[in-house]
Amino acid sequence: MTDAPDVPAAGRYDVTPVEPFGVAILAPEPGARVADLDVTTLRALVRAHHILLLRGFAPFGGPEELSAYCELWGEPSVWPFGTVLELVEKERPEDHIFDHSHMPMHWDGMYRDHIPEFQIFQCVHAPGADDGGETTFSHTTAVLEHADPGTVARWSRMTGTYHRAMEYYDSVTVSPVVTAHPVHGAPVVRYNEPVAPGDGDFVNHPDLRFTGLPDDELAEAHRTLRAALHDPAHLYVHSWRTGDVVISDNYTLLHGRNAFTSGAPRHLRRVQVLGTPPLVNPGLVR
Length: 286
Ligand SMILES: [Fe+2]
Hints:
Number of domains: 1
Number of strands: 16
Strand order of the largest sheet: 1-2-3-14-6-16-4
Distance between the termini: 37 Å
Shape: globular
CATH architecture: 4-Layer Sandwich
Strand content: 25-35%
Oligomer: single chain
CATH superfamily: Clavaminate synthase-like
Bound molecules: fe (ii) ion
Structural class: alpha+beta
Radius of gyration: 18 Å
CATH topology: Double-stranded beta-helix
């Protein structure tokens, strides 16, 4: 995996590596509070390692407490529902986000005015150990570093045009598949994985079109890109435990979800935190 810089002030915490990338801090004693960890240090850890897992800490008391904590990180994205998205399966969902199906790889904010830098997840209740529902994160800088130059050159010719209408937006975004990290400029992938049109169980397919390569080469480019994003060398699969807090780097990673058993008690909360300054979505058309 890519060498990540050490974060000097992190020495005061017991920071352990997560495979294949990311770091974890386990609560030093029962009842320890996430809010007592230094946010400047945690932010530097996420920027360096892209995933930070905080495990065993006292849970936030409710969505308001989580939201207040996230404000220590920066300006939260505000949605029609507020800042805290309650990710729970709905009985008859109008969109796959609230279903138990898989969620294809994407980046958060792709259809919004601003792209958040961080996602902060709290696991209120984990699904059962055999229920699936893992959140998947792909390290796209590592994907590009490890692919052969000819393959990267083909991916770099692709542009995605994405249209998605759901409860909270009806937007079109156009983005090159390979683009530059908005802060340090390293190459990253911005891609929403297509779902096979024949997957009739998938609720509310987005409308995805890709240009820049002839049709036969496009199919091959999707296949190689998908394989690289899901290569275990670049993919962190997070199996939730109740109480976990996971903070991810949305500028570098793509993320998705594995399908889970319908009716499993999976309950996550998610807050998005904008960068400093907030990143205006470069791809939003409308
Ligand atoms: Fe997402």
